[in-house]
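Most newcomers find our protein records easier to grasp once they have seen one. Sequence and backbone structure share a record, each on its own labelled line. Nothing more is needed to start thinking about how sequence determines fold. As an example, a complete record with its sequence and its structure tokens follows.
=====
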Amino acid sequence: MSQQLMGILPMLLVFVAFYFFLIRPQQKRQKERTQMLGNLKKGDKVVTIGGLHGTIVELGEEKVTLKVSDNTRLVFERSAINSVANAEEAGAAKSAE
């Protein structure tokens, strides 16, 4: 009986290590990203996955229209938004104080 347990124990430890080092952090990042995409609003300064910086001028269920210059507006899928620049600037300002 203890020989069987000793044979299974390393596999169990590997699974636990994979869960805590790979699976759990990925789930946490995905949850934060989903929350960020859900909290988008007009006027937010965002960065797309491709590195394009712009300001949200129109927001739909699946599409986001960004103003990238005075005359240029581009339409993206909501999932193409990588980060909100407003949140990063606010966090940097708080840490500086």
The two ends are 61 Å apart (CA to CA). The helical segments are 2-38, 85-96. The mean pLDDT is 87. The longest helix spans residues 2-38.
